[in-house]
């Protein structure tokens, strides 16, 4: 990833490059876990899964979601142990299938990163807006959650996050992990206080007579949404020491560790959430409702808005880094504009890609909030869209792992079973959007996902043709 170029007679100048071997295993795993805002997952996953399943046995849907992601993780780490690349799934699929799979995966991941990074900025806006709204004298004034205020929050979030990512991985890792660690204790304190107040009610939570396949699958889809993109740390492989050993650990840490944490949090919180139904219906956030239910008062609950905003901001920084390394890989392959390959000579960051991603995401989510009307509804739709889009790369990589191991003569029945089950689960997540569509506006995301991938695919093909055409005259002159 480094090189030199001639500056004068006998004088060499270093070409700007990413810093190879810069991240150790502990740093990469910490960044990978912190990227998925564990505090936000602890705060929101139990409520959302409980709402989707409609019964007290919600924990099994959370657990099944983690299992599904672990199943799809096994095929991914087959590639991570063999190849070092900055394009994550896009780079991996290129090693197995032809150009069609590379184009298709690239288009889906471009759309997915815009949705994912934009969604994180939306969460920052949602929690900051909620905090401001809670401090207003007029509770009917929802302006902090509507377009004008949210655009200002989005702009500030992207400006600060991009500036941190611009200065390189050291700054990003320090802030991302620091904010994630600082945001967890308050949410854990509320969760434990709620469990102590209500008890675990295990007889009710483990009563499988309430089991319903349809409601469970809806809950599984919600759980998966909080783990989508768990393999994104693979985009830092070129900057990681011993990536073939360390990247797989960082990838699987997300569904294994956070999947277990969210399952335990669901068991601890469900009794309190059931008792706090009235407060939740009145608009209180889950942590605030649990805090009041446990006798902690409204101040503790209100403080979680800022804590969770900080957690989302830390994840925003991480995914700006992931997304821009992915864009860099596609640009180096000629599928995105060449200017995205530029590396800052001092900070060793893809600075042009960082600015470009921030501008694209800011424009996209600002338009979404303007059209939908408020940030909460826009975020719910965008999260659904992200899951639908990311299902395609997951299905392809599952098939790719089977093809890769068969091609090399390996007998891997356990891996193949994981790939089949994991790929089927991801395919079903999308198909279920047509069969059992969610409430509006998320109900339209199943077909919007197809449109988004097709549009980006056309743009990628156009960019590729332009760059190929620009290279031909240069080659002729040479």
TrEMBL record:
Keywords of the record: Cell membrane, Membrane, Transmembrane, Transmembrane helix
Pfam families xrefs: AA_permease_2
Listed transmembrane segments: 28-52, 58-80, 101-127, 147-166, 173-195, 215-237, 249-270, 306-331, 352-373, 385-404, 416-435, 447-465
Stated name of the protein: Amino acid transporter
Lineage of the species this protein comes from: Bacteria, Bacillati, Actinomycetota, Actinomycetes, Kitasatosporales
GO cellular component annotations of the record: plasma membrane
Locations listed in the record: Cell membrane
Presence of the UniProt keyword DNA-binding in the record: no
Any one GO molecular-function label of the UniProt entry: transmembrane transporter activity
InterPro entries: AA/rel_permease1, APC_superfamily
Membrane topology value: Multi-pass membrane protein
């Amino acid at each position: 990833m480094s090189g030199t170029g001639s500056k004068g007679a006998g004088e060499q100048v270093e070409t700007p490059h990413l810093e190879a071997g810069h991240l150790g295993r502990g740093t990469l795993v910490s960044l990978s876990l912190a990227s998925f805002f564990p505090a936000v997952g602890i705060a929101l996953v139990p409520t959302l899964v409980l709402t989707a399943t409609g019964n007290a046995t919600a924990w099994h849907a959370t657990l099944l979601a983690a299992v599904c992601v672990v199943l799809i993780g096994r095929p991914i780490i087959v590639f991570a142990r063999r190849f070092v690349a900055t394009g994550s799934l896009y780079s991996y699929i290129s090693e197995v299938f032809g150009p069609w799979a590379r184009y298709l995966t690239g288009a889906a991941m471009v759309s997915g990163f815009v949705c994912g990074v934009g969604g994180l900025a939306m969460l920052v806006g949602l929690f900051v807006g909620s905090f401001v709204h809670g401090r207003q004298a007029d509770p009917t004034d929802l302006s902090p959650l509507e377009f004008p205020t949210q655009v200002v929050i989005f702009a500030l979030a992207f400006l600060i996050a991009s500036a941190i990512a611009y200065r390189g991985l050291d700054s990003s890792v320090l802030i991302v992990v620091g904010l994630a660690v600082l945001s967890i204790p308050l949410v854990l304190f509320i969760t434990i206080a709620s469990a102590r107040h209500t008890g675990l009610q295990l007889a009710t939570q483990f009563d499988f007579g309430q089991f319903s396949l349809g409601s469970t699958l809806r809950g599984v889809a919600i759980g998966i949404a909080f783990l989508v993109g768990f393999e994104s740390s693979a985009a830092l492989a070129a900057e990681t020491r011993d990536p073939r050993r360390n990247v797989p650990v960082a990838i699987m840490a997300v569904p294994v560790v956070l999947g277990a944490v969210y399952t335990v949090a669901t068991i601890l919180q469900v009794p309190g959430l059931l008792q706090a139904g009235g407060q939740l219906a009145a608009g209180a956030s889950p942590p605030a409702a649990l805090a009041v239910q446990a006798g902690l008062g409204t101040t503790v609950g209100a403080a979680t808005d800022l804590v969770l905003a900080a957690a989302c901001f830390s994840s925003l920084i991480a995914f700006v880094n992931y997304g821009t390394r992915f864009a860099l890989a596609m640009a180096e392959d000629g599928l995105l504009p060449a200017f995205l390959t530029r590396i800052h000579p001092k900070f060793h960051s893809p600075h042009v890609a960082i600015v470009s991603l921030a501008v694209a995401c800011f424009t996209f989510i600002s338009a979404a909030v303007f059209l939908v009307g408020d940030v909460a509804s826009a975020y719910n739709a965008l999260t659904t869209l992200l899951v639908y889009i990311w299902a395609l790369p997951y299905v392809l990589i599952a098939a790719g792992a089977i093809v890769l191991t068969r091609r090399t003569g390996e007998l891997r029945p356990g891996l193949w079973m994981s790939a089949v089950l994991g790929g089927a689960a991801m395919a079903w997540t999308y198909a279920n959007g047509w069969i059992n569509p969610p409430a509006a506006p998320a109900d339209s995301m199943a077909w919007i996902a197809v449109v988004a991938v097709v549009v980006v695919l056309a743009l990628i093909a156009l960019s590729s043709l332009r760059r190929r055409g620009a290279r031909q005259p240069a080659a002729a002159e040479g």
